[in-house]
Amino acid sequence: MLNLGLFMMPIHPAGKDLGSSLREDEELVLLADKLNFSESWMGEHYSSSGEPVPSPLIFNSSLINKTKNIKFGTGVVSLPQQHPGVIAGHVALFDHLSKGRFIFGIGAGGLVSDWELFNNLDGKTRALTMIETIDSIIKIWQSEKPIEFKGKYVDFKVTDNYIPELGIGTFIKPYQKPYPPIAVSLKNPNSMTAKFAGQKSWIPISGNFIPPEDIATHWPTYKTGSLEKDIVPDPTIWRVGRSILITNNNEEADNIINDPNGIFSEYFLYLNTVSKLASGEKKENISLSSIRLESIKKAKDLIIIGDEKTVLDKLIAFIDIVGPFGTLLLTGHDMTDHKNLWINTFTKMSENIKPILSNYISNKLSKTAAE
Question: Domain residues for 335?
Answer without folding.
Answer: 3-250+306-370
